[in-house]
Design goal:
Layout: E1 3-10, H1 28-37, E2 47-48, E3 57-66, H2 73-86, E4 91-99, E5 111-120, E6 133-135, H3 141-148, E7 153-156, E8 171-182, E9 185-192, H4 199-211, H5 217-226, E10 241-247
Amino acid sequence: MPIYKLTIEYNGTNYCGWQRQNSIKPSIQQSIEEAISKINLATPVIFGAGRTDAGVHAVGQVAHVRLDKHWNPAKLTLAINAHLKIARHTIRILQVEEVGEDFHARFSAIKRYYKYKILNRFAEPSLEKNLVWHVSSSLNVDLMEEAAYVFAGKHDFTSFRATHCQAKNPVITLDKIKVYKQENHIYFELSARSFLHHMVRNIVGALKKVGDGSLAKEDIKNILELKDRNKAPATAPACGLYFCRVDY
């Protein structure tokens, strides 16, 4: 039975997240599995590179699936997307590749890339509703960029992971963190082999506080060293987060 690697784009606004769960809203995983079941003998199980939360988007999520027959990758892409479209899902398969038996979307990954978007202007978004975090007060990007370097490298990120995070080890090596502004948008780009639950959103939430003057760079250092989630600022909303790419 062949294995296929799927590169996936989705608007996560109306979903309960990537993973199947008991919810009124569908999950991304469930929606793709149901679409594939229309062209496969049985409903397959797909495995994703990252378990994005409710409201989080993706432009390069990766998953793999085992099917009951060989497909031309282009035809398989069209077939899955046709059924996703019929079901009115805001999910699309961007690319399909046949891969070997040793490929696993999650465990074969060597680096993951995320981007977070803030719309920093007085007026609320219309075109980008649910696609950015709207912050109406002015933010100092230079201070945010300087404070962001505190997170670079290998650290215990206990203060910046969800209290219910199930990862056994809170030590993560953050390979890259970049903060920059283009017109009235502020972007945060982060990459690492793996991330803790809510880690990116918690980092952005803290840097936003630096930008509005509530915290200083030294405060970020202290919070990181305290290893206590209760000492850190609130989590940034899910709507601004994008899962961008996975390296293998």
